[in-house]
């Protein structure tokens, strides 16, 4: 619709109805409302510059100085916009700012949403082109997703609750580009269950490798953010991990993951012996009591000790951490004797990150994990199943450290 043409309401109504029925955008390319949006924006910009060029500006010699064309991307397509200029270039429009090429926050939110679900910049660009007839470069997409960085930093530093009943600590591994080469990065995640039985990812940390020293810093950070007590910590078999926890939270019960221990054990058992060895090992970790488990461990050693002394010694050496769960009921045992809970969370994160290859930086990695986590946590609205019974049993065990709100 040319400005010089007489406005034809019937033509507009007809075209609007046709596009609504066909599902086409009313504001996109050839959309019925596209000329109206362009006119409204340009009229608003003219109003802004007229207001800016007051008597004082004009007395100083400032005047209108033509217009400049720019392509403005919106959630409904791209508009060719004529933006007014002044002679001194001091006019700062607010409706559509200088160098602003994307108008709608809704479009940015859509881009961030797609990125958070694992789509690559190339796929996002193609999708935006198909849906909105709008070209967006990878550089622009990167700058849009960078708007998440302050949210990531705020989330990393947010205050936490003073008590968590159960906390799982585990790591994931990724590739990151650094100074022209690809290096390994370890992402430490801490998943907790609060007194109401709800999950919360307490923190995500990036380091060059997994180690007890770094975990010590992570646990110190939790303490600084308000966590004064953890009842039970579930960990993998990393050397020095339990000692790191004890130095910050000395009263915390530590349970090493049985599945990690089994995996590490079976690596040192000959393939022909693995099936019978596992059959004899199962009564150890599935025993009804610690005493029965220790009896079964004696039986295991008697049968396999000479052939696989390293494996048996590993179970003996780590037994205190491996056997913590025997003092609890069946429901609590299932929660703590493996790190399955946090590994399930990791599987959901990997669905989003698996197509990324090497990340361009540590922050690029953190951005995506943060966005993936926000989506995952939307489902964490209810307490764990049968939590009221579980927390009652924990309160009996830990006394004043877990005060229930009745």
From TrEMBL:
InterPro entries: Transposase_mutator (IPR001207). GO terms for molecular function: DNA binding; transposase activity. The keyword DNA-binding applies. Transmembrane segments: none annotated. Keywords: DNA recombination, DNA-binding, Transposable element, Transposition. GO terms for biological process: DNA transposition. Required for the transposition of the insertion element. NCBIfam families: transpos_IS256. Belongs to the transposase mutator family. This is Mutator family transposase. It comes from Niastella populi.
């Amino acid at each position: 619709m040319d400005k010089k043409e007489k406005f034809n309401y019937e033509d507009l109504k007809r075209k609007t109805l046709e596009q609504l029925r066909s599902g086409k955008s009313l504001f996109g390319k050839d959309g019925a409302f596209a000329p109206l949006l362009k006119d409204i924006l340009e009229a608003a910009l003219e109003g802004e510059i007229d207001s800016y060029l007051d008597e004082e500006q004009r007395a100083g010699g400032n005047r209108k100085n033509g217009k400049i064309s720019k392509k403005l991307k919106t959630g409904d397509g791209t508009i060719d916009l004529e933006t007014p200029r002044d002679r001194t270039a001091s006019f700062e429009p607010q409706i559509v700012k200088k160098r602003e090429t994307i108008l709608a926050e809704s479009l940015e939110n859509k881009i961030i949403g797609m990125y958070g679900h694992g789509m690559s910049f190339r796929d996002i660009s193609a999708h935006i082109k198909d849906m909105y007839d709008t070209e967006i470069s990878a550089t622009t997409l990167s700058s849009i997703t960078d708007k998440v960085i302050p949210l990531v930093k705020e989330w990393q530093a947010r205050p936490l609750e003073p008590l968590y009943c159960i906390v799982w600590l585990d790591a994931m591994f990724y590739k990151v580009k650094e100074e022209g080469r690809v290096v390994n990065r370890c992402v430490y995640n801490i998943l907790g269950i609060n007194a109401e039985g709800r999950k919360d990812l307490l923190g995500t940390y990036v380091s060059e490798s997994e180690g007890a020293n770094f975990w010590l810093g992570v646990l110190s950070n939790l303490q600084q953010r308000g966590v004064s007590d953890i009842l039970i910590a579930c960990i993998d078999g990393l050397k020095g991990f339990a000692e790191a926890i004890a130095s910050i939270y000395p009263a915390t019960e530590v349970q090493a993951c049985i599945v990690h221990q089994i995996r590490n054990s079976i690596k040192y058992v000959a393939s022909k012996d693995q099936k019978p060895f596992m059959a004899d090992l199962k009564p150890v970790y599935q025993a009804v009591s610690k005493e029965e488990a220790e009896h079964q461990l004696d039986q295991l050693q008697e049968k396999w000790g000479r052939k696989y002394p390293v494996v048996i010694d590993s179970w003996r050496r780590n037994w205190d951490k491996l056997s913590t769960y025997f003092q609890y009921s069946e429901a609590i045992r299932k929660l703590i004797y493996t790190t399955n809970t946090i590994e399930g969370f990791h599987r959901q994160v990997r669905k989003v990150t698996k197509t990324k290859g090497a990340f361009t930086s540590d922050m690029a990695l953190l951005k995506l994990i943060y966005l993936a986590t926000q989506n995952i946590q939307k489902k964490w609205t209810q307490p764990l199943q049968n939590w009221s019974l579980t927390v009652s049993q924990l309160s009996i065990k830990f006394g004043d450290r877990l005060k229930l709100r009745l």
